[in-house]
Design goal:
It comes from Nepenthes gracilis (Slender pitcher plant). This is LOB domain-containing protein. InterPro entries: LOB. The structure is a single chain. The chain is mainly alpha-helical. The chain starts with 6 loop residues before the first helix and ends in a 5-residue tail after the last strand. The C terminus is likely disordered.
């Protein structure tokens, strides 16, 4: 069978046949197909995990809203005003801890 192939493909064909033979020893019913099926299931599972993580990132990114103008202001009163304005849109933002203003969730 190998001799019917072009010379440049014979080594690869021999490697493939050797791999299939080894796989058949480990799994007499499915051989290489069993390994391929397992790998396909792992790929599907990994894609699902990536999709879940991306959804979580999107969700948490949408939860955090900081007014960019507040990031550039340096005066304490302006910072305090921005914190209070931001706390109106996000009640957990700007909560007081021991008399100090929290700069947000970061």
């Amino acid at each position: 069978m190998v001799q019917q192939l072009p010379v440049h493909l014979r080594a690869e064909a021999a490697e493939c046949m050797s791999f299939e033979a080894t796989s058949r020893i480990r799994d007499p019913i499915y051989g290489c197909a069993g390994i391929i099926t397992q790998l396909q299931h792992q790929i599907i599972q990994a894609k699902r995990e990536v999709a879940k993580i991306q959804a979580k990132i999107t969700f948490y990114s949408a939860q955090v809203h900081v007014d960019p103008a507040c990031l550039t202001q340096s005066h304490y009163a302006q910072k305090q005003e921005c914190t209070l304005q931001t706390s109106i849109s996000n009640p957990s933002f700007g909560e007081s801890r021991g008399g100090e203003f929290d700069d947000g969730p970061f």
